[in-house]
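FORM 7B: Structural annotation worksheet

SECTION A. Query
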Amino acid sequence: MSIDIEKLKAINAAAAQGEWIYGEPSDAVISKIAIEKNADSASYYGGYLVCESAGAADRRYIAAFNPRVTAELIAMIEELRSRQ
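SECTION B. Predicted structure
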């Protein structure tokens, strides 16, 4: 399997930044930091809406792999590749 790191970096940079939370205060995945992107979403959900139309397990997964986490994973992959 080949992972396109540059593509992942671009996708990561375009995503709503900040901590992603599932289940607080609604059953949606929201980003607490990216509130300015959508004021209506922020007032209703308490943050920028990332996902609401997925199963509960998928929403937990999406929230866990937020841009901060994926940036760290990308850095780890790049570090390991540089050692080869």
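SECTION C. Observations
The first strand starts at residue 20 and ends at 22. The chain has one domain: 5-82.

SECTION D. Sign-off
Analyst initials: ____
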